[in-house]
Design a protein that fits this description.
Length: about 180
């Protein structure tokens, strides 16, 4: 089982890394990579008892589908980020998810899991909306992810978070150049 989880962890990290790089270049093909990578991450996170992270990856998959359609050449709808409202919503969600994880699960890092959950949703929403500030949030979340994943023995995901932090810095730069 451990070997299978390790392989899923690697495949997920590679697909999601391709997603981040493709998105930095504003390529629509990045969204299917993110979709597949997040589907694999669901099992990895559940096995590590990061239940909110597991649910988050399910939400990422749904947002990847939304991103695919929102970024289509025949875009029929435009989505707009409202940073203060969105951040307030994410903070409230982090508090609620943290309480659920602490009260109802055996999650070893309930607060971190809740912060990564709500912050990840917010950052992905901002990506779908095309808001450059998603990259700053991803940088912060991925730096936190290095600690959380390493602490739980998910070395591949810890290294992946480090690479994704670099990708976030690159994305910030790329989206500023246009």
């Amino acid at each position: 089982m451990l070997c299978r989880m390790h392989a899923l962890e690697w495949c997920s990290a590679l697909l999601n890394g391709g997603y981040a790089l493709g998105l930095a270049y504003r390529k629509r093909w990045a969204w299917p990579l993110g979709f597949l990578g997040t589907l694999l991450a669901i099992a990895v996170m559940f096995e590590a008892k990061l239940y909110a992270e597991s649910a988050l990856n399910l939400a990422y998959a749904a947002l990847a589908l939304l991103g695919w359609f929102a970024w289509s050449p025949s875009e029929r709808f435009a989505l707009r980020a409202h940073r203060l409202r969105d951040a307030s919503w994410a903070f409230g969600m982090a508090v609620g998810v943290s309480w659920v994880m602490r009260s109802l699960t055996d999650n070893p890092r309930p607060i971190w899991d809740a912060v990564l959950f709500s912050g990840g949703l917010l950052a992905t929403w901002w990506q779908v909306c095309g808001d450059r500030w998603n990259w700053t949030l991803w940088l912060i979340l991925n730096l936190a992810g290095i600690y959380v994943y390493a602490d739980l023995g998910l070395e591949v995901y810890a290294a992946y978070s480090g690479m994704m932090a670099l990708a976030a810095a690159w994305g910030w730069y790329r989206w500023g150049v246009r």
